[in-house]
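The data are set out underneath:

___
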Amino acid sequence: MNKQVFEQYDIIVIGAGPAGLMTAIESFQPNKKILILEKKFKPALKLRIAGKGRCNITNDANFKEFISHFGKNGRFLKYAFSEFFNTDLLEYFNKLGISFKLERGNRYFPKSDDANEIAEVLIKKINSLKIKIKTDSDVKEIIKNENDDFVLTIKNSEGILTLIAKNVVIATGGKSYPGTGSDGSGYKLATQLGHKITPIIPALVPIETQGNIAQKLQGLTLKNVNVEVRCENKKIDEEFGEMIFTDSGVSGPIILSLSKTIVKLLIKGNTVNIIIDLKPALDHNTLDKRLIREIKNNNKKIFKSLLKSLLPSSLIPVFIEILGISQNKKLSEINSEDRKKLRLLLKDFSFEVKDYKLFNKAIVTSGGISIKEINPQTMESRIVKNLFFAGEVIDIDADTGGYNIQAAFSTGWVAGQYLKK
C-alpha cells in the first residue's frame, strides 16, 4: 500500500513509553490535537518488563542522593526533579488508583507487583483524554518546512503517511532492549534536525568473565559483598551490596551499577578485573584472627568444615580447587601459608573481565542527545524551536533502583507542562 495521507497536529509525541505517555497527558488541552506514534504493536512494551515485570518505579532517596546516582550529568535533572520528584510521582499514580510498597534499597514497586498495571492506567488516561495513539508506526524522516512546521514521514499498515506538527517530542528511549522498540531510532531523527549524539554504550548490563568459574557458580547470589573494579592494578570504582553469577559471568545490582565503568574501560582496550571481597566487614588482621580461632577450636575437623562456616555451599568446591588444599586435610595440619592463601582468596576473589553483554541485554543506554543542546527547564531543543526530548533518549542514565524511570516521567512531565502553555 503506497497511499500518501496528510494529517496535521499541534503536538506529535514519538514513542509511547513512560516519557512519551507522560508528555502527552500533561500537554493536553481540549483545543489541542495531539498524536502519539509508537513503532511497536503495543504501547509501553519496555515499561511492562521493567523491574523483571514488577516495575521499580522510583526510589525513596533524598534529592541530593537521587541526583548523585546519575553521575556528572545529574545536574541536568535538578530542575525536573525540583518540579516533579519521587513523592509527586507516587501521588500521581495514587490518584490513578495504584498503591505502592517500599522494599529494600528504598525501591518502590506497585503492590500488585505488575508493571502492566502502570502501563495500563497511563493508556486509560490517554484514552479518556481522547489522545490518539498510532501503533506500528515507524517514523522514517523528520524535517522542517517553509512554514517552520515539522514534516514527518511515517510508514505503517496504511502505507506512507505525511504528518505535519507544530511541536514534536522525541521520546523513543535509548537502544537497550531493542525488541521493545527502544532501538536507537530517536538518535537518527535528532541528527536529521542537526543535533549531536554523545556516543552510546550499553549500561546496567551483565558482564562476561574469563574461565569457567562463574559458570560453575551459576545462580549463586552473594549478599553484602564488596566488588571492586581494577584496571592495571589500580582501583577505579567499587560498590557494596548484592550480585549474582550467571552462565557466562556476573550480574545483579552492584555489577549492573559498575558496568558502565567496566564497559568504558574495555572500549579503551584496558585489561579489567573484578575483585569480590566476601568478608568486607573484616579487615585482613581481624579475619586472620577469626581463622586462627576457628582452626584452634575445631582442630580435629577437616578443611571442608572450616569452609562451610565461611562460604555458601556452592563456593566450597571452587575454593578447594583454587586453593589446592585437600578438603579432607585436618585443621590441625593447616599451616600459616594455607591460612594466608584462604584469607587472601576470601578478600580478593578475582575475575578477569572478558566482555559485556550488548544492548539487547542492557537495562539502559548511556549516551544520547547532548544535554548541552536541551533546555532543562522545558526539555526544548536549544537549536531547533518547538522540538522537545524526554526520557532515555537524552544523555542521562543512572544506577539501578528506580532512578531511570523517575527521570523518564519527570522529563516527560516538564515537557508536557511547557507544551500546555
